Amino acid sequence: MDGTLVDSEKLWTIALDDYAAHRGGSLSQRTREDMVGSNMTRSMRLLLVDLGLPDGNSEIAAAASWVARRMTQLFAEGLPWRPGAQEALRSANELGLRTALVTSTIRPLTDLALDTLGHDSFDVTVCGDEVDGRNKPDPEPYLKAARLLEVDPADCVAIEDSPTGVASAEAAGCAVLAVPCEVPLEPGPLRTLRDSLAEVDFAALGDLFTRAA
Q1: Does residue 1 fall inside a structural domain?
Q2: pLDDT for 54-74, tens place per residue?
Q3: Residue 176 is assigned to a structural domain of this protein
């Protein structure tokens, strides 16, 4: 979702920077990049460590609550689509492709984002607080989505923008359409790189990944 369908990574940067300023510090660029694609708990631990603050469970929970409140404000203002994403999602739906939203974002924020994406745009949604702590890059988010769709992960194409998300999808056995947003992505045997979703013909995805294999 973040950085793939909607350009919300920049909103996360605003919220994280605001929290850092609230605590009297500033977030380093390297740590911010390490957070891309991560779940809330890991991101808050990275944030607190970067700021030189205690990173116990209670401190992580407090930071997560603060950032979630700020993100709720930002998400409520509406989310900008990534280039080609709205058309890609519409094409997938018109073609009758079964779709799952697999995101590291927590459910309350995801539900806000679905006001932009469309609550009926996906057959299933899997959020970062719904995988028993087995978040990306663990394969469980994509494995859970495949179970809910009742499909083999090997028959799925995952669309990802981050190294963390790509690693999760590949570990689950999915082919990956990698469209970088905030951080670069490297080539790999199970992935096809594209600069934008506007470059993708969804009707030809099967042929695309047959050639890439």
Answers
A1: no
A2: 999 999 999 999 999 999 999
A3: yes
pLDDT of residue 206: 53
3-state secondary structure the chain: CECCCECCHHHHHHHHHHHHHHCCCCCCHHHHHHHCCCCHHHHHHHHHHHCCCCCCHHHHHHHHHHHHHHHHHHHHCCCCECCCHHHHHHHHHHCCCCCEEECCCCHHHHHHHHHHHCCCCCCEEECCCCCCCCCCCCCHHHHHHHHHHCCCHHHCEEEECCHHHHHHHHHHCCEEEECCCCCCCCCCCCEEECCCHHHCCHHHHHHHHHHHC
Length of the chain: 213
What is the pTM for the complete model shown? 0.83
Number of domains, the chain = 2
pLDDT in tens, 184-213: 999 888 899 999 999 888 777 655 544 444
Judgement on whether residues 198 and 132 belong to the same structural domain of the protein: yes
CATH number at residue 43: 1.10.150
Structure tokens at 34: 């390490």
Q: Is residue 3 in a domain?
A: no
